[in-house]
Amino acid sequence: MLPIATSGLVAGVVAHHGIFIRGEWHMKIPQVIASHLILMGVLLYALYDHYSSLKIAASALGTMISCYFSSLFISMTIYRLFFHATSHFPGPKLAAVSKLWHVFHILDSKNYAFLQKLHMEYGQFVRTGPNEITIFHPAAIQEIETSKNQTTKDVWYDLLKPHKSAVFARDDDLHKEWRRSWTQSFSKKCIDAYRPRMVELTQTLSQSISEYEGAPVDIDEVMTWFSFDAMGDALFGEDFGLTRSKSIHPGIVHRDRALSILGPLEGAIWIARLGFSLTPFLGRVKDWFKLVSFCDEQLRKRIQRPTESLKLDMVSFFLEEYNKNSETMNDTDRGLLLSGTVLSAVVAGRFVLFSYHKPRHKPQVGKLTLHSDTTRAVLIAAFWFLSKYPIHADKIRSEIQVLNPNDIDTLLTLPHLNGVINEVLRLAPSAMTGMARITGPNGFVFDGTFIPPFTRITAPKYVIMRMEASFVFPNEFIPERWYSKPELIRDERAFAPFGFGNRMCTGKSFAQTELCLAISNLLRRYKVSFAPEYDPQTMWRDMKDQVTAQPGRVLCIFEPLSDIRD
Q1: Do the strands 444-446 and 456-458 form a parallel or antiparallel pair, or are they unpaired?
Q2: Mean pLDDT on 144-173
């Protein structure tokens, strides 16, 4: 059996250094498994032909397989620990061996807290995977995401394949081409059409809360209804009626269940892709495909809606793009682009919502790729902070008390209202971690440190925006830092909850409208406080990092004000 064992050992080393060490494999896992099974079958046949005994042949094959995989993984371990281009970076040794070590430690979906611990232990640059460097520095987010560094989107953005979309396009040229329909759907003309419908929806939200009549309001639940309705109205030209009916749409259930598994797998997306390929009928993988079906069904309903009942919506521009692509794409590809674009609008807001520029002198609410879940997280956190620190609710109320509640342009200029929104996004960013990039062929130099070519790099927003190097009193809720106390901002580059660069999202005005209207409308009508016996630490204790922030439960009392001015 010695030649058999030797052959397996040699094959393992050759497979590692000759095949698996090169390129990307996350989309080829089924083929890798299939090729190994076929090769095993061929070897079993050859060994049986040689030994004329199935038992001996099977035993020999088992020996060869054991030696092959042992050699393969030992070779990978030695290479990653001692010879990999990133081996000189500090970090846990087991993280250098396999990304599965990191996945194991964040199965509770608290990657933001785990990365903070790693930063405290290992410093500014931490090796958090075999080919991954996490950077903790105020300028890291901006530097990583600007195009001048020639970084590209990480393999995570292949999640939607075979569907296509601008949001998930890793190719810059395709991203630029497919982005046009998104830009058009958030033009001034479109925003002007969306605004009255958003005003009406926020009024429905207020009415829904009034029906609780002083009983505790589950903010998570209410903001889920509201934000999903807002998404439906802008995307399909028709909301789902959840805020009025106080009900949960099956699409929300499938979305939340499907995307919750992606939090721990953010750095090991090959596991999700493997599940999509081999077990589409199981558990939360099945929910993913139900989510895709939900999006396709909503698109079908929108297309079949009578012309006279249509409102201006995002799908109008996606369909226009679909028709224009008939000359350059086949029917299958443009269908996958249309379906993927709608799917991205429902899903992608979990990954990219806001982008900010120079917040030192003028507070700004940033740019949005439309999706309900990110807005929901911001609103939940906002009302937690407003309940915890009612003085800030009073300040917003003093700003809006003499204004027309539907004067959106004025709302967008109110310093304390927008300061509160900025501060919420700093302390509880929708994208707490993730948003990784791949360094270009020339590598990446940051703060005098060279990171090798084709290395995965990431800068966790949650940790960076709570660093002493970024802000004075970084863990304190101080909205004034965004307008009257700029000295409390040490490095404005750190304030980037959702990115910089040419991949920024296009729906700034929509995001401003949704957040400012919802917060101002409710504070105009209600005094907000935590419900009796509610533990305020619940939101933070149960906070999950599942691609976007998933705050724990928040229960509030909305007490009607007697001097409402409409």
Answers
A1: unpaired
A2: 88
